[in-house]
Design a protein that fits this description.
Elements: E1 9-10, E2 15-19, E3 25-29, H1 31-37, E4 40-44, E5 51-52, E6 57-63, E7 67-71, E8 76-81, H2 84-87, H3 91-94, E9 103-107, H4 119-125
Antiparallel strand pairs: 1-2, 2-3, 3-9, 4-6, 5-8, 6-7, 8-9
């Protein structure tokens, strides 16, 4: 059974989002996604300053099994990336909701978060 924290919102493409106190959105991939991928060996992060649209490919995660695109769950500007994943991509497997966040976005329309699933809906979808 996958770990699905109730305080997060989820995209059908298996990204999780957390709204921070400053209104920015932190994005990572779910425990379910990392489990399907297997051992993560490489993460390609978006560039800080990049404009992204909801549903747009913006990062890549590679494992011993496959490479998968990571999609922006909201529209906005990438304001930070988790450089720790460059040197330690295995964090995606061990800490999918803590140390292995991928990037942060300053959303142009915070209401887009309302289109994402809550934990119950995501758990039902997987």
């Amino acid at each position: 059974m996958s770990n699905t924290p109730a305080e997060l919102r989820y995209a059908s493409s298996h990204e999780w989002t957390r709204q921070e106190a400053d209104g920015t959105i932190t994005v990572g991939i779910t425990d379910h996604a990392q489990d399907l991928l297997g051992d993560v060996v490489f993460v390609e992060l978006p560039e800080v300053g990049r404009a992204v649209n909801a549903g747009q490919e913006c990062a890549v995660v590679e494992s011993v099994k496959a490479a998968s695109d990571i999609y922006a769950p909201v529209t906005g500007e990438v304001i930070a990336v988790n450089d720790a994943l460059t040197d330690s991509p295995e964090l995606v497997n061990s800490e999918p909701y803590a140390g292995a966040w991928f990037f942060r976005v300053r959303p142009t329309d915070p209401a887009e978060l309302d289109k994402l699933m809550d934990a119950d809906a995501y758990s039902a979808s997987i």
